[in-house]
Every structure is written in C-alpha cells, then in structure tokens.
Design goal:
By secondary structure, this protein is α+β, with helices and mostly antiparallel strands. 45% of the residues lie in helices and 14% in strands. Helix 2 crosses helix 7 and helix 5 runs antiparallel to helix 6.
C-alpha cells in the first residue's frame, strides 16, 4: 500500500490472536527498521528489549496492570531510552566516520556540543531519551503495519517494576511498550482525529 494509506489505516489494537506467532526474522527486521528513526546528533540513545517467551510475557504482565494484550501479542517490545547521550556519542558516530560521511573533527565537534547540552542536565537528558525512544516506537509501529501486523503502544505500566524486572541500566528508562502480533476480532478502526483546522496555525 502507499504510505498515506498505511498511516490512515494504522490503529492501536487491543485484541491479538494468541494462537498466531510472528517469526523471529520478521520481528528482527521490524526492529532493524526502527533503528533508522532519527535522534539528536545521531546519538541513537534507545534500545529494545523484546518479551517474546511466555515466561517473559508473564513477567511483563505483572508490571503492565494486567493488560492481557501483553501475553496475547506475539511479542511486546520494551522501548528503552538512554540517558547521557553525550557519553556514548563518539562510539555512535564512529560508523559514520568509518564510512567517510563524518570527519573526525566533526565527530569531536558533535561530542563537544552534545556534552555542553546534556552534561549535568538530567531533565534535558530524560526529554531526549523519551524523544528518541518515541520516534523509534512510531517507526516500529509503521513497519509492523506495513508487514500486515497489528501493534499497540502502551504507557500503562509500572516503569520502576519493568526497569527492575528486565535489568535495565542506571542510565536507562522504559519509555513505552509496543505489543506486536496478528489482530483478533473486536478491534476498533482508527478513531477520528481532531480536524486540522483545530491543530494547525500558520505564521
């Protein structure tokens, strides 16, 4: 389908067919596409933890307010944002340096300005982690839609519990969960949005 149609038909699914799995290769490709989402300085300050096994799904369910889509979906992805992006920026940019896209001088300049922006700024670091993780999560959901799969972003979970249960680092925050699988009956279509006239201002 064309991209506009894909966006217009994507809806958050609450009902998943628990009997249908999604191949690991398919999930891996969706997550590869999610890594192509943008991030400030190309810091790539997000990663993914996939609750795929029944055991992992049950562990996640305990911290997801009992929402059974976590266990009915083929997998639920914990989209993780990373704090202190300046600390790992040089390494994140190194492939661009190796490919000849970014010079070592520009790499150092990016690290310098990122350090000025984020160092000792916990709120800005948190904001950036949420931005990067959210952009990747949306890319993941669009990729799933394009693959004929249903998805649902979830914010109804105990972040501290998920952090502890899945061994996230001190510099990581679970930003959202994204359930992915085959849709079952009973899902709503995409719900109407506010008209553009109410959310658009020209200056």
């Amino acid at each position: 389908m064309d991209f506009a149609t894909l966006i217009e038909q994507r809806a958050s699914a609450n009902q998943f067919d628990a009997a249908r799995e999604v191949a690991d290769a398919t999930l891996t490709e969706l997550l590869r596409l999610a890594t192509l989402a943008p991030s400030a300085f190309n810091a790539q300050n997000r990663r993914f933890v996939v609750a795929r096994s029944q055991e992992a799904k049950q562990r996640l369910l305990r911290h997801a307010n009992g929402q059974d889509k976590v266990v009915h979906a083929a997998a639920t992805v914990i989209v993780v944002g990373r704090l202190a992006p300046h600390a790992t920026l040089a390494a994140a940019l190194q492939p661009s340096v190796d490919a000849g896209l970014v010079s070592t001088d520009l790499q150092a300049t990016f690290v310098h300005y990122a350090t000025e922006m984020y160092d000792d700024q916990p709120q800005i670091q948190r904001d950036e982690a949420i931005r990067s993780a959210s952009l990747s999560a949306m890319t993941l959901m669009l990729a799933a839609e394009d693959a004929g799969l249903a998805s649902c972003p979830m914010i109804g979970f105990d972040a501290a519990g998920v952090h502890r249960e899945f061994g996230l680092g001190d510099d990581e925050i679970p930003v959202m969960l994204v359930a992915i699988g085959h849709a079952a009956a009973g899902n709503w279509p995409q719900k109407p949005r506010l008209p553009l006239t109410e959310v658009l201002a020209w200056q």
